[in-house]
Specification:
Blueprint (H helix, E strand, L loop, with lengths): L4 E5 L6 H13 L7 E5 L5 H8 L4 E5 L16 H6 L4 E4 L2 H6 L4 H13 L3 E6 L3 H5 L3 H16 L8 E4 L13 H16 L3 H6 L2 E4 L7 H5 L6 E4 L6 H10 L1
Parallel strand pairs: 1-2, 1-8, 2-3, 3-4, 4-5, 5-6, 6-7, 7-8
This protein binds phosphoenolpyruvate.
The site of phosphoenolpyruvate has 13 residues, from strand 8.
Length: 248
């Protein structure tokens, strides 16, 4: 039985005041939440979010890492630094990093490896562009993305990896994959993992991301192979985020 996981991705949003209100708002409604809940804050707010969430069931994640441990990499943040803030999770390979910052499958795979080496759980994002879906390439794209990581870290490592399937055309657009579209791709991803190890395939959490909201969360997470959500826009309002957490 896989535990439901809800992860919020705040992206490049927030302020000290907003972090305070948001985290306190989430914490105030957590008592009856059974899912594992993570919020991924921008780097400058990790410390503040972590301090507010101390002794609660809310876990804190980062949104990216640099593969180097330290050195002359101006503007970058290492896994060691993230760990220093008590962070437990890190988003790796988000479609915005892939498309805006040129992160290839190989770079993403290396980041997954570095996260694991530093005892951080990667939220490993995959997903196809609209034209790839429309030309029937969804399975080929997610296979390529997943295989790059399996080739780098091995299937055993998936015991410590959370996969997030995020169709790029659904991220931030208000257009959600239908439960059937999402379920079909999630089942395909699980079969991909099962080609290597069926037990690991069964235990790996596969989250859905892409305009998940209080309106559609329950139906999406009711699908057999959807184990939770990676939530962008709706994670910026405590009430909406909690609603999704409770639907899980
Ligand atoms: C995301 O950024 O990972 C995401 C799923 O965003 P949204 O929920 O806003 O589509």
């Amino acid at each position: 039985m896989r535990q439901t996981i809800i992860a919020g991705n705040w992206k490049m949003n927030s302020s000290k005041e907003v972090v305070n209100t948001l985290v306190m708002g989430i914490l105030s409604g957590m008592a009856d939440v059974k899912s594992k809940v993570i919020v991924c804050a921008p780097f400058p707010y990790l410390s503040q979010a972590e301090a507010l969430a101390t002794h609660s069931q809310l876990q804190i994640g980062a949104q990216d890492l640099n593969v180097n441990a330290s050195g002359a990499f101006t503007g970058e943040v290492s896994a060691e630094m993230i760990k220093d803030f008590g962070v437990t999770h890190v988003i790796v390979g988000h479609s915005e990093r892939r498309s805006l910052y040129g992160e290839t499958d190989e770079i993403v795979a290396e980041k997954v490896q570095v996260a694991l080496d530093n005892d951080l759980t990667p939220l490993f994002c995959i997903g196809e562009q609209l034209e790839e879906r429309e030309s029937g390439k969804t399975e080929a794209v997610v296979s390529r993305q997943v295989n790059a990581v399996i080739n780098r870290v091995g299937i055993e490592a998936f015991k410590n990896i959370i996969v997030a399937y995020e169709p790029v055309w659904a991220i931030g657009t208000g257009v959600t994959a239908t439960p059937q579209q999402a379920q079909d791709t999630h089942a395909f991803i699980r079969r991909l993992l099962a080609d290597h190890d069926s037990d690991i395939a069964q235990s790996t959490p596969i989250l859905y991301g892409g305009s998940m909201s209080p309106v559609n969360a329950e139906e999406l997470m009711g699908c057999e192979d959807i184990d939770g959500g990676l939530i962008g826009g709706a994670s910026l309002k405590a009430e909406d985020f909690l609603h999704i957490c409770k639907a899980g």
